[in-house]
Amino acid sequence: MTEKPVIEVHGLRQKYGDFTAVDDISFQVQPGEVFALLGTNGAGKTTTMDVLEGYLKPSAGTVRVLDHDPFAQRAKIADRIGVMLQEAGFFQDLTVGETIKAWRRFTVNPRGVAESLELVGLESKARTRVRWLSGGERRKLDLALAVLGRPRLLFLDEPTTGLDPDARRATWSYLAGIVREGVSILLTTHYMEEAEFLADHVAIMDSGRIVRQGPMSEVIARGADTRITFRADASTRADRLPVFPGARVEERGPVLEILTGEPQATLLALLTWAEQNSVGLQDLEVRAASLEDVFLDVAAQGRAVV
Ligand SMILES: Nc1ncnc2c1ncn2[C@@H]1O[C@H](COP(=O)(O)OP(=O)(O)OP(=O)(O)O)[C@@H](O)[C@H]1O
């Protein structure tokens, strides 16, 4: 028997008064999967998370989390989900250790305080008051609290904002570890590298709608072209190049850039042409599309619609 998805969203619409923040979106998250919900500022990611966490009642559509209605049946799933909000409210005068202790009282089968501190690298801050923590240290405390109850499903809203690169990578490796143990994650982030590193599936939102969705590798492959760049000699401009089927050429100062969905064929044609015409291709570089290219394309199309 195949396991049911841990999250099912069908035709979700969320309105604030007359304003539609989430506009008919559908997606599923499978057990053990990391699903990245990406999008431009104000696209509707946090609103979607709020619905899935049971804080908002959908205006339309259906939502199931661990096979329950998260709004009407939140108590039934609360012990199995962990939530890391963008801005958690802490008691500023409690120390980090006291905060974890206080949270443990409301948590079924919680991790120990020492284990929690070690998990996120906050051992040396156990006696520091929350008000004196740096932004990145607060984020670490947020994460420690989100995983305190050993959740099966974790909601992470921009989990590494404010972390230095070293702490960010440590968080990724911790998250990758709990995923290997079977935890599923719904993640929002503005760091494309983070989404690429962690997520199996991705949905990109713009103005309340999902505009790209699928397995990470497919979304990248379908969504943006490979870039071949080089510096040619002064007499070689874009109009001297042969026509590469399915590709377009852009001039950026002395650098020519070919964007292509058929990198192998285009590269072969370019090298053959250069050889036959004795053109030197300086600094020749082939760069595969990245998630960031896809995201920027989505954002540019969104701006064009407005
Ligand atoms: N309580 C609210 N009342 C009215 N409008 C709201 C409310 N909460 C959010 N919005 C609006 O809904 C839209 C979606 O907001 P949301 O926070 O879901 O976006 P987001 O994708 O998480 O953005 P960001 O990347 O900037 O965090 C925004 O235009 C926001 O201003």
From TrEMBL:
GO terms for molecular function: ATP binding; ATP hydrolysis activity. The keyword Membrane applies. Gene3D superfamilies: P-loop containing nucleotide triphosphate hydrolases. Keywords: Antibiotic resistance, ATP-binding, Cell membrane, Membrane, Nucleotide-binding, Translocase, Transport. PROSITE patterns: ABC_TRANSPORTER_1, ABC_TRANSPORTER_2. GO terms for biological process: response to antibiotic. It is a peripheral membrane protein. CDD domains: ABC_DR_subfamily_A (cd03230). It is found in: Cell membrane. Residues 7-232 form the ABC transporter domain. GO terms for cellular component: plasma membrane. This is ABC-2 type transport system ATP-binding protein. It comes from Sphaerisporangium siamense.
